[in-house]
Automatic annotation (TrEMBL):
Keywords: DNA-binding, Membrane, Phosphoprotein, Transcription, Transcription regulation, Transmembrane, Transmembrane helix
GO biological process: regulation of DNA-templated transcription
Domain Response regulatory: 400-516
Cellular component terms (Gene Ontology): membrane
Gene3D superfamilies, sorted: 1.20.5.1930, 3.40.50.2300, Histidine kinase-like ATPase, C-terminal domain (3.30.565.10)
Keyword Transmembrane included in the entry's annotation: yes
Pfam family, one: HATPase_c
Transmembrane segments: 20-40, 52-73, 80-98, 125-143, 149-173
Domain HTH luxR-type: 548-613
Keyword DNA-binding listed: yes
Protein name: Response regulator
Gene Ontology molecular function terms on file: DNA binding; phosphorelay sensor kinase activity; protein dimerization activity
Record PTM 4-aspartylphosphate, positions in chain: D451
Length: 628
C-alpha cells in the first residue's frame, strides 16, 4: 500500500514538473497575480482575526480552496476553471466582506486574470459575471448605494477586465509575430537551399548536355577518322594523325571542364549530403533532427540523389512550418530492392493534407524515378513521409561489356565512350570471334559488341557458338555498312541488335542499356527492310506448309503489353511507371512497335492492331525478340 502511494506521489510530481516546464511567461504572470492575491487575503485574515467567526487556521485553510481548485482546473479545462474562479474566488470575497475582512476591491485581481483567459468568444459570458454579478453581490452585502455600485465599483471592475482582455490580445499578437518570424526564417532557409539545389541541377543539366553534344560529337569524329584510317595513305595519313591528336586533346579539355563544372556535392556520399542538410536545418530552425542510416550504403545515381534531397527539404520545411514539430526523425534505408527515405515528426499533424505542402512536386519526382511517395498524418499524432525508389538491376552493378573488333583504334574509341558512363564497364576486348569465345569463358560479360568481318572467325560464326554456349548472353552485331541479308542472318542466329559503327555515342549507350534490360535494337536505316524480309520469309514458310503464327509482325510480349496500354489511352509516363521502366525506354519500344507495324503514330497503330486482332492477346504470343 505504501509502495502504491509512493508511486502515485511520484507520478503526480512528474506531471507537475512536466506542466511547469511547458509554461510560458504569460502563465507565470497569471500564477504570480493569483498567489499575490491569496497572500494578500491571508494577511488580511491575520490582521482582522478578531472578526473571524472561526479559528484563524480554518480561515486560512478556507482561503486556500479558491486558490488551489481553480489553479488545478486551469491546467485541464478552461471553462471549468472560469466557473470555479468566479464561484469560489468571488464567493470567498463576498464572505470576507460580510465580516468586514476585505474591501469591495478584493475581486479586482481575479477579474484581471479572468479577462486574460476569456479571449475565446465562447467565454465572453465571464464579463457579465466578473463585471456585474460578483461586484453587485459584494456591494450589496456591504450596503453600498446604487450610484456607487454602478459608477464606481462596476466601472472599475470593467476597466480591469478590459485591461486583462487587452493584455491577452497583446500576448497573442506577440506570439503570432514570433511564429511568423520563425516561419519566415524557415522559408528563407528553404529558399536558399532550393536556390542551391536548382543551381546544382542546372549545372548538372548543362554538364550533361555538353557531354552529350560536344563530347559525343568529338568522339564520333574520332571514331569516324579511325574507321577510314586503313584507306588513307601518304601525306594524308600524317594529316589524319594530326587531326586525331587534336580531337583527342580537345575531348580531354572538354571532359576536364565538365568535371570542374560539376558541383562537388553531386559526387559526395549521399548520406553525407543528407546529414549536411539536416545539420544546417537544425542549426537554422532550432528543431531537433535525428538522422540515421540503415543497411550498407551503395552508389546512388545523381538523379536519385537530387530527387530525395529535394523531398527531404520539403518534408523538413513542412514539419517545422505547418506541423510546428519540435523533433524530427530521418531514416535512410539502403535495401536490396529499393532505397527508402522516411521522415517522421512529432508535430500537430492533420486529417486533411493540403496541396500547398509541396506534396504533388514530391510525388512527381518519385514517379519520374518509378518510385512512390506516401504521407500518413493524424491530428495531434504527427506526420510520416515515406519516399521509395526501386533499385534497378543496372543500378546495382555495372553492365559488363566485351568489345570484339579487329581494328584496335575502333575498340579503343568505343572503350573510351563506354567507360565514361557510371553504369557501363568494358571488361575485355578481342580481335576476332575465336578470341571472343575464349574471353567470354573468363570475363562473363552481360553484353557483347561484335564486328562481322574479322580474321580467323567472323562475327556470325562466333555468334552461333556463343548463343549455343550462353543462350542468355546479349550479343549486338556492329557493321560498317548496312546489309539487309547480313542483319537478317544475325537476328535469326540470336543477335539482339544490329547497329552501324557510325551510330551516335549517346544512342549507342542508350541502346546497350535497353538491350541489357531485355530489349533489342536494329539500326533505323534498314529496319523496315529487315522486318519486311523476315515477314516474307514467314509467309513463304506458311505457303510451304509451315505452321501459321498468330503474330505475323514479330511483336514481343512486352511490345504487345505496351500496345494494349496505348489502346487504353495511357501516356508514356504512366506506361513507364506501370512497367517500371524509364520514359525514354518506353519511347524506344513504341518507335520499334511503329516500325514493325509499318505505321507512324498511335492512332494508326491502334487501328492496325484492331484489324489484325493483336489486342488482348499478349499472353498468347511467344515470339522472337527483335527491337529497333
Amino acid at each position: 500500500m505504501i509502495q502504491s502511494d509512493n508511486k502515485s506521489g511520484e507520478g503526480l510530481r512528474t506531471s507537475m514538473k512536466q506542466l511547469i516546464t511547458r509554461w510560458t511567461w504569460p502563465d507565470w504572470v497569471i500564477f504570480g497575480i493569483r498567489i499575490v492575491w491569496w497572500i494578500t487575503q491571508v494577511i488580511g485574515l491575520c490582521m482582522n482575526q478578531t472578526n473571524i467567526p472561526m479559528p484563524l487556521w480554518a480561515a486560512i485553510a478556507l482561503s486556500f480552496v479558491p486558490f488551489s481548485i481553480p489553479f488545478l482546473l486551469q491546467q485541464f479545462h478552461l471553462r471549468w476553471y472560469l466557473i470555479s474562479e468566479i464561484v469560489l474566488s468571488g464567493g470567498f470575497v463576498v464572505f470576507l466582506n460580510i465580516y468586514s475582512l476585505s474591501s469591495v476591491w478584493g475581486f479586482i485581481p481575479i477579474g484581471f486574470v479572468i479577462g486574460i483567459l476569456s479571449i475565446n468568444k465562447s467565454y465572453r459570458w465571464t464579463a457579465i459575471l466578473s463585471i456585474g454579478v460578483v461586484p453587485f453581490i459584494v456591494c450589496s452585502v456591504t450596503g453600498k448605494d446604487w450610484t456607487e455600485i454602478l459608477f464606481n465599483v462596476m466601472l472599475n471592475h470593467g476597466i480591469v477586465f478590459a485591461l486583462g482582455y487587452a493584455f491577452q490580445l497583446s500576448i497573442l499578437a506577440h506570439s503570432q509575430g514570433r511564429i511568423i518570424r520563425e516561419q519566415n526564417r524557415i522559408l528563407e532557409q528553404h529558399v536558399v537551399q532550393i536556390e542551391q539545389m536548382t543551381l546544382i541541377e542546372e549545372r548538372n543539366r548543362l554538364s550533361k548536355e555538353l557531354h552529350d553534344t560536344i563530347g559525343h560529337t568529338l568522339t564520333s569524329i574520332i571514331m569516324g577518322m579511325e574507321s577510314v584510317r586503313p584507306a588513307v595513305t601518304g601525306e594524308y595519313s600524317e594529316r589524319l594523325d594530326a587531326l586525331l591528336h587534336s580531337s583527342r586533346n580537345g575531348l580531354d579539355e572538354v571532359r576536364k571542364h565538365l568535371h570542374q563544372m560539376s558541383m562537388p556535392s553531386l559526387h559526395a556520399s549521399f548520406t553525407s549530403s543528407l546529414q549536411k542538410l539536416v545539420n544546417k536545418f537544425q542549426d537554422t530552425t532550432g528543431v531537433e533532427v535525428k538522422f540515421r542510416t540503415l543497411g550498407d550504403e551503395y552508389s546512388v545515381p545523381n538523379q536519385i540523389k537530387l530527387a530525395l534531397y529535394r523531398c527531404l527539404q520539403e518534408a523538413l520545411t513542412n514539419a517545422a512550418r505547418h506541423g510546428q514539430a519540435s523533433s524530427i526523425q530521418v531514416h535512410l534505408h539502403f535495401e536490396n530492392n529499393q532505397l527508402r527515405l522516411q521522415i517522421q515528426d512529432n508535430g500537430k499533424g492533420t486529417e486533411q493534407l493540403l496541396p500547398g505542402f509541396g506534396l504533388s512536386t514530391m510525388k512527381e519526382r518519385m514517379l519520374e524515378l518509378s518510385g512512390q511517395m506516401s504521407v500518413h498524418s493524424h491530428l495531434d499524432e504527427g506526420t510520416v513521409v515515406l519516399c521509395t525508389v526501386p533499385r534497378h538491376k543496372h543500378l546495382q552493378s555495372k553492365i559488363r561489356i566485351v568489345l570484339v573488333d579487329d581494328q584496335k583504334l575502333i575498340v579503343d574509341s568505343l572503350k573510351m565512350i563506354l567507360d565514361d558512363q557510371e553504369d557501363l564497364q568494358v571488361v575485355g576486348t578481342a580481335e576476332n570471334g575465336k578470341a571472343a569465345i575464349d574471353l567470354c569463358e573468363q570475363a562473363h560479360p552481360d553484353v557483347i559488341l561484335m564486328d562481322v568481318r574479322m580474321p580467323e572467325m567472323d562475327g556470325i560464326e562466333a555468334l552461333q557458338v556463343i548463343k549455343d554456349k550462353w543462350p542468355d548472353l546479349r550479343v549486338i552485331i556492329m557493321s560498317t555498312f548496312s546489309e539487309v541479308e547480313q542483319a537478317v542472318t544475325s537476328l535469326q542466329n540470336g543477335a539482339v541488335g544490329y547497329l552501324l559503327k557510325s551510330i551516335q555515342p549517346k544512342e549507342l549507350i542508350e541502346t546497350i542499356r535497353l538491350i541489357h534490360m531485355g530489349g533489342t535494337s536494329i539500326t533505323q536505316e534498314i529496319a523496315e527492310q529487315v522486318f519486311e524480309e523476315m515477314k516474307q520469309q514467314r509467309l513463304r514458310l506458311m505457303e510451304g506448309g509451315g505452321s501459321e503464327g498468330t503474330n505475323p509482325y514479330g511483336l514481343t510480349k512486352r511490345e504487345l503489353d505496351i500496345l494494349e496500354q496505348l489502346y487504353q489511352g495511357l501516356r508514356y509516363k504512366t506506361i513507364a511507371a506501370n512497367m517500371i521502366l524509364s520514359e525514354g525506354t518506353i519511347r524506344n519500344y513504341v518507335s520499334i512497335l511503329y516500325s514493325k507495324l509499318g505505321v507512324n503514330n498511335r492512332d494508326d497503330a491502334i487501328n492496325k492492331a484492331k484489324e489484325e486482332g493483336l489486342l488482348g492477346k499478349a499472353s498468347e504470343f511467344n515470339v522472337g525478340h527483335i527491337r529497333t
